[in-house]
Amino acid sequence: AQVIPSWPHLTHLNIGDCLVGAEGCLAILRSLVDSGISRQLALLNLQYGEMNEEGAAYLASQLEQGNFPQL
Q1: Is 15:44 a contact under the CB 8 Å cutoff?
Q2: Closest Cα to residue 34, out of 13, 6, 5, 57?
Q3: Each residue's pLDDT expressed in tens, for the chain with a length of 71 residues
Q4: N or C end of the chain: which has fewer CB within 10 A?
Q5: Across the chain, how many H-helices and E-strands are there?
């Protein structure tokens, strides 16, 4: 999550099957939003990342706020 801001041209993030855990998923999502990269992201794969309800709720709220417009 800490390196995401150093990838300003990121459009696809595929970390499916990486088992980053609930805290890792949330940290990645927050980093994407905080850095503004979420606005250009066209693909986000967190499959089998062990996201929990808190992470899913955060993602849903950010989708509703338009922070992932290309997803």
Answers
A1: no
A2: 5
A3: 999 999 999 999 999 999 999 999 999 999 999 999 999 999 999 999 999 999 999 999 999 999 999 99
A4: C
A5: 2, 2
